[in-house]
Amino acid sequence: MAFNVFFLLYFGLRFIAANDKLWFWLEVNSVVDFFTVPPVFVSVYLNRSWLGLRFLRALRLIQFSEILQFLNILKTSNSIKLVNLCSIFISTWLTAAGFIHLVENSGDPWENFQNSQVLSYWECVYLLMVTMSTVGYGDVYAKTTLGRLFMVFFILGGLAMFASYVPEIIELIGNRKKYGGSYSAVNGRKHIVVCGHITLESVSNFLKDFLHKDRDDVNVEIVFLHNISPNLELEALFKRHFTQVEFYQGSVLNPHDLARVKIESADACLILANKYCADPDAEDASNIMRVISIKNYHPKIRIITQMLQYHNKAHLLNIPSWNWREGDDAICLAELKAGFIAQSCLAQGLSTMLANLFSMRSFIEIEEDTWQKYYLEGVANEMYTEYLSSAFVGLTFPTICELCYVKLKLLLIAIEYKSEQRESSILINPGNNVKMQEGTLGFFIASDAKEVKRAFFYCKACHDDITDPKRIKKCGCKRRE
């Protein structure tokens, strides 16, 4: 009763809002209201119930797609089309089953309703489905003349609808993108988004460095976003790293795809460039457009992008939300190459040393006492950052360097210093003028991330008498803090 009151009020509102009052009476919803709402009030008044034309309410399912669009659930054209087809198919099926249910349980009027048979509604649904699919098992069939006459016309229309709608629905479901889902963020686990030039070479090089075992436990999930589905080799690479890598098909120029990869909660977004492209300026322009799209969607996201030409970096400064101080950065490959060449002219071998420091390599043991052994031992070292222990607060940089080298077997080369205005700057070997502050970030050269942890765990009270640096771990007073 409450639903019928609601539909009656809804009918009145639609009539008031209708532009064409005459055409309003011929709409599907209006016809449904004519045959379903008044009989309910009449049955209440007469204290009698009649099956009637209640089955026509199934035609309201045709509007299911519009409701989902209004709730912003359906956004793509394929999803809207799929729901439309399913709604029309199901509503026609259920409505026809309701008519058969009515006439079979009532009987023919010219036979004084004596030729009726008891069929449940779901048996009628089953009958209509096997009829529409041209199977026709014959276990359930219509006995009344009205039911058989209706089945004749329904076979013609239902067969046409079944033959056209079902293949189209299957095609739409089959055309769903394999990588078209959404990323589900895990509590306590960070994730970064990688986009741009996604190929087997670029992804394998990135994963080889980012997920290197020397980095200790990398509790960061990598989400790749690209508008082209991966080939078999790239797909196999993703499967080998399935615990930390996910791929989604889409474009960073589409806000819907950015929402799918949860760009607003990502720690950073990395944009890879095609180093072998024929037109470097066009490649830089594409990456700048990606930066603009991401910043328009979420201005606070940290972006690190690769650029091929130095002069194109200036265009990034025109983006209002681009902020170097918040971690946004552009790595220019041409600038790096030119800088390495220039520094090699001043100090021979500097470019090789820097390349070895910033590339992740594991130590390869050689038994012979040759120059290759010492060279590979040096190549296995990389640059790492770690916060210095509170035991270093108040000490000068040379004192800490000596302590780290002698006691911890670490090479400290620089620190991140914060001025009174809380502005950060990196100081390389600052000398005796700078004293260490609380929470200072140090830059170390070490073989892996576990070694650098000694600088964070070091405690003068607990570790002063330890000679083996491998025994320097989290102590009791650190736990109490």
Automatic annotation (TrEMBL):
Residues 189-331 form the RCK N-terminal domain. The chain crosses the membrane at residues 28-47, 82-103, 118-137, 149-167. It holds the Pfam family Slo-like_RCK. It is found in: Cell membrane. Keywords: Calcium, Cell membrane, Ion channel, Ion transport, Magnesium, Membrane, Metal-binding, Potassium, Potassium channel, Potassium transport, Transmembrane, Transmembrane helix, Transport, Voltage-gated channel. The keyword Amino-acid biosynthesis does not apply. One of its GO terms (cellular component) is monoatomic ion channel complex. One of its GO terms (molecular function) is large conductance calcium-activated potassium channel activity. The keyword Ion transport applies. Its main location: membrane. PANTHER family: CALCIUM-ACTIVATED POTASSIUM CHANNEL ALPHA CHAIN (PTHR10027), CALCIUM-ACTIVATED POTASSIUM CHANNEL SUBUNIT ALPHA-1-RELATED (PTHR10027:SF33). Belongs to the potassium channel family. Calcium-activated (TC 1.A.1.3) subfamily. KCa1.1/KCNMA1 sub-subfamily. This is BK channel.
